[in-house]
Each structure stands twice: as structure tokens, then as C-alpha cells.
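Colleagues,

For the teaching module next term, I've prepared a clean inverse folding example: a structure given as C-alpha cells, and then the sequence designed for it. I'd like students to try predicting residues themselves before seeing the answer, so please don't circulate the second half yet.
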């Protein structure tokens, strides 16, 4: 694993950033344009993933950091659940949903991996 000096070095944060960009792009499409509540919740969930990863990195001690990483993980599950709503109401094409599900799963898996890594290591995290 490369040395991680900043939250921007975290692969899970980098993946979350891509997911946020994709989320903002799809929220500008005509199909969802007037559904303010769904758009807002989708954006908030994506931003929560990215921002909680950054905030967790800035905390002193693994225990406090892990709390924020766990929130990021939970937000990824929320985001993933919301994709079913988008599918069920027909806002996006199956191809678009496949792409965003892949990005979501990548972010989620990287976040879970980061949490597992921190949970097992002996040396405490210090930003």
C-alpha cells in the first residue's frame, strides 16, 4: 500500500469523488430534473460518502476515524438503495444504472477494505 499522507491519497475517497461527479452529471438529465427531493437526497448521499471519508481521515485515532468511515459506508449503502428507486421509476437507462452501480460498488468495496485495514493494524492513525 502506498504511503497515505492526505485524504486525497485514499483510493476510497478518489472513487467517491468519481461517484459524486457522476451523480451531479446524472442529476442534470431531463428525466430527473424536476424531482428535487430525489435529486437532493441522491447528491447528499454521494457527498456524505466522500466527505465522511475526508473527515474520518482528519480525526485523531483510529476509533474516531472508523466512526466516520462507517458513516461513509452506510451512505454508500443508502446510495445503492436509491439506485433501485431510479430504476423503478425509469429515470435512467439500464446502461447508465449499470455504470453507476459499478462505481458505487467500487467505492463501497474500497471503503470496506480501508475499514478492515484500519481495524487490523496495530499502529494508530495520525493525520
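(Answer key — instructors only)
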Amino acid at each position: 500500500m502506498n504511503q497515505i499522507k492526505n485524504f486525497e491519497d485514499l483510493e476510497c475517497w478518489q472513487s467517491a469523488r468519481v461517484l459524486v461527479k457522476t451523480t451531479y452529471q446524472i442529476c442534470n438529465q431531463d428525466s430527473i430534473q424536476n424531482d428535487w427531493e430525489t435529486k437532493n437526497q441522491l447528491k447528499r448521499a454521494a457527498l456524505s460518502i466522500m466527505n465522511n471519508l475526508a473527515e474520518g481521515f482528519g480525526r485523531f485515532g483510529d476509533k474516531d476515524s472508523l466512526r466516520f468511515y462507517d458513516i461513509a459506508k452506510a451512505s454508500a449503502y443508502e446510495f445503492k438503495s436509491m439506485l433501485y428507486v431510479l430504476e423503478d421509476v425509469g429515470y435512467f437507462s439500464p446502461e447508465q444504472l449499470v455504470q453507476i452501480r459499478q462505481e458505487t460498488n467500487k467505492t463501497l468495496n474500497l471503503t470496506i477494505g480501508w475499514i478492515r485495514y484500519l481495524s487490523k493494524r496495530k499502529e494508530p492513525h495520525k493525520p
